[in-house]
Amino acid sequence: MINNSTADIRQKFLDFFHSKGHQIVASSSLISNNDNTLMFTNAGMNQFKDVFLGLDTRLYQRATTAQRCVRAGGKHNDLEHVGYTTRHHTFFEMLGNFSFGEYFKYDAIQFAWELLTGKHLFNIPKEKLLVTVYATDNEAYNIWAKDIGMPAERIIRISDHEGSSIYDSDNFWQMGDIGPCGPCSEIFYDHGDHIFGRPPGSPGSKEESGDRYIEIWNLVFVQFNRQADGTMLPLSKPSVDTGMGLERIAAVLQQVNSNYEIDIFSQLIKAAAEVTCTTNICSTSLRVIADHIRSCAFLISEGIVPSKDGRGYVLRHIIRRAIRHGYILGATHPFFYKLVTPLIEIMGNAAEQLQRNKNMIELVLRNEEEQFSHTLERGLSILEHELAHINSDTMDGATAFRLYDTYGFPLYLTVDVCRERNINVDQEGFKKAMEVQRKRARETSSFIGYNHNNQYSSMLNIAYCTNFLGYENVTYHNSKIMALFCDGKPVEVIDSINNNNNLNSIVILNETPFYGESGGQIGDSGELKSDTGIFKVFDTKKYGQSFCHIGTLSYGKLSIGDKVIAYVNKARRTCISLNHSATHLLQSALRNVLENNVEQRGSIVKDKYLRFDFSHNKALENEQIRIVEEIVNKHIRSNLIINTTNMSIDAARQKGYLLVLGEQYHQSKVRVLSIGNVSTELCCGTHASRTGDIGLFLILSESGIAAGIRRIEAVTGEAALACLHQQKHLLQSISQQLLKNDGPNLIEKVRSLKDRTKKLEQQLNHINNQQVVQEIAKLSSKIRKINGAQVIVSQLENIDQKILRTIVENMKNKLGSAVIILANISEMKANLIAGVTGNLTNSIKAKDIISTLTQKVGGKGGGSPEIAYACCSDITAIPAALSHITIMITEKLLTKNV
Ligand code: SER
């Protein structure tokens, strides 16, 4: 056998399939903008999903890739196994070969066998390999048995899971709940009888099957398109999708029994031991950390940051799991972020994306570690306490929930810790306790079920290809209706009966000038007119290669086959295009003003404004914002030509053009957009023809949206002008109407006004204090002593309410044992206040005094036993009410033993 490095194996695989006529295609992003059915890219075939479904085409019919995958969260979730088995990872690379309707089972099996066993290829001894096929797949069985010559005892048929429906089998692969799928044949490697393990198909769970027989390659024969309701629609062109875990085949070829012993992992584990100061190199925790740093670093490099929901939640989960394992090893300070540098060195060429985003990855990891360390320490000590007192092998759900709810200690960590002590956690009980927090539960689970294409899913088997004409036209006179949908169901006609004013009707045309939402640019709106009807388009979205014109029928009817004139709302489209071109200028200016490695992290291009998220780890200073604005406006005034050319994606990559992360570049040709010599990017959006059209660019706000990610919102053209006018008008109004100041020294004027206000406030305070002193002196002369307490009941005039309270509080302090009742008449209304010192509140309460008074004088009031207020309007009743309360208080004080 050959002793290959992981990098060599990757290259050998791609070269082998290239020699068999396969196009080498780059790994796609870990996140897909176009497929919300997927949490993360989990297989090599994801980027070709639409090609398998016949919704998209490529210039090639055979492809090969080394695809970065994350299996955590979503349908294929290996997170809980990681560290405890020799072969599961959150992040791994999947080597694959694909046939789009060209070769099928025979060639797929022949290619795999040749590569695995070929003398000058992987040269694995044939007797070390065994295979599985789907129980009823005789075709695959016979190819293995007759063509390859595999002995029958090493071909295992795998049935559907017991008690489940057809195709629910380990040998039936599907990407998600919907989409391409089919029976598969898996190739296993036997690591030898010195390792525990049962052959595939043995009873028991996957964990129980041990590590002797390891699946190294999965050959999927893609035959169906699974619908949301479970129906399997046969595909017109059966295809092939294969996947071989790079780390697993590396273990085989490097003659080690665990993925964690291959070259890259042994180096990573060494680095993890160093940063956590661990000497036991065999520790499970080191494996967990070495695995998790790869998924975390790659996910962050793609713009994902830890958060409470969706992808960010899964990332947070993985980071925290790694931190806890560091804690087990005794790490007391942030350590995880320190693995980014060794990771980049170890991954070599495959880490180019990490190198570019190194600072941000480290920053995000460090932030999360610092935030989480306190929660972890406290949660673990409480959990230890609970575990010390547990009498059974199950921790109850309420305790797990209390840890989560009160101490923020996540359930998965409780499960993880308990698992190490062979204790189960009653997760059902946890869920019940969690029900009260439904909102958060929704947040954390919503992603997986969320599918924004759901309303179109019934169209999965409809493969129209709409020709987009909107770069040159905003009106097109000769479009034909190919399909119609109402409420997600295909219909022949949209009329007032089935449309019924709902906004969920969809028209699909053969050709359209309407831009379908993509690349951050929103879809066009407008109108479709035929001889028989008018359809208002509110939005346009792409599904595969079909453009969905979403809207409502406003008149008549539309039928499949009708010709329509398609009118894009031109004014709105113009604004969108200006904003899109300005976004490119903004990105280029940011690269000039900040570091050159500013990376796009998201973008929304609307008609009213543009939003651009980018990697940068601190807030922009006002001066930097001004310079960015100035650069963009300078390019606008230069009236640069905006040009587009089409080229192959590889040519674009070689030229170093910016590929936007998360974007899938499906077509063999990409559109390269250049603005003068200022910016060149791949872009499918619509743009101005010259930068001068943008008119004006104005930044509205700059803010942070997550660690290491900033957001700029800006406006262009008329919106920017309107914004300037509004600001100008505001300033004029302030200066002319409020400040009566036409001169240029507005700031001076406002500053002097502020100074003056401050001085006046000081003077007013002084006067108020004097008034308090004077009033207290006057009131002191009215004190009556009753049974050791001092009582003041008095009527005042025109005293500010705050001062009134200060008077009462000061007098209570001064007199020590007192009841003070004041009625202040001002503007024909009376404010009543009663204050009682704490020593008297057992027998006399301020709020009772106020309540007695308001019964006499009307109005409303309230307060505490020590101070209470009321406001009333019948001022004529005040003197009598005060006399009445004086008598009552006197009686109370005399009868009480105070
Ligand atoms: N899609 C299949 C898998 O992930 C083969 O690539 O196993």
From TrEMBL:
Broadest EC class assigned to this enzyme: ligase
SMART domains, A to Z: tRNA_SAD (SM00863)
Cofactor annotation remark: Binds 1 zinc ion per subunit.
Binding site for Zn(2+): 580, 584, 683, 687
Catalytic activity: tRNA(Ala) + L-alanine + ATP = L-alanyl-tRNA(Ala) + AMP + diphosphate
Cofactor(s) listed: Zn(2+)
Localisation: Cytoplasm
Organism domain of life: Bacteria
GO terms assigned for molecular function: alanine-tRNA ligase activity; aminoacyl-tRNA deacylase activity; ATP binding; tRNA binding; zinc ion binding
UniProt comment concerning the protein's domains: Consists of three domains; the N-terminal catalytic domain, the editing domain and the C-terminal C-Ala domain. The editing domain removes incorrectly charged amino acids, while the C-Ala domain, along with tRNA(Ala), serves as a bridge to cooperatively bring together the editing and aminoacylation centers thus stimulating deacylation of misacylated tRNAs.
Descriptive protein name: Alanine--tRNA ligase
Originating species: Candidatus Palibaumannia cicadellinicola
